[in-house]
Description:
This is PilN domain-containing protein. Keywords: Membrane, Transmembrane, Transmembrane helix. The chain is about 60% helix and about 20% strand. The protein is of the alpha+beta class. Strands 1-2-4-3 form a 4-stranded antiparallel beta sheet, with helices on one face. The radius of gyration is 50 Å and the shape is rod-shaped. The model has no long low-confidence stretch (mean pLDDT about 85).
Amino acid sequence: MRYNINLIEKKEVSLLDRLIFFGLNYLRYIIVITQLVVIGVFFYRFQIDQRIIDLKEGVDQKKEIVKIVLPLLNEVSKINKKTLIIEDTLLQQKKFSGMVDYFLSSFPETITLTNMEIKGESIKITGDAINAQHLQAFYNLLKKENKFQIVNLQSIKKSETGYNFVLQLDKLNSI
């Protein structure tokens, strides 16, 4: 059997020696890894720059599209406003027509209409009735059917030919 005995004392390794040993053995790996990371970040930066360029080109294209389409959108907006005005006018004409049609269909033949004034949603009529009961029946019919929110007999006067009256009708309810 053989024994190997080392009688030489171990040297104490100083801090500088440890740093040199670490630097020579492990620092090269750290440097290589750092270089790989730097190269990876460098290529990633190229990708990001290309994306930014593509996005800027896309924004420029969209700006050109907006420049071209903006006059069309303005024209569509004007046409839309005109259409809304026309629809409103047609609705007002329909209300007016409905109001006049209802009034004329319910107006009795025994009463003479001397004046009819229409303003907005109100009708003011002046007329002559030979028989007061016909006028009262017409007034009661207008109240009963409730087509107008306000039915107001403003004045009635006895005359030689019958009864002169002024009737105010306001705000036609939807027909």
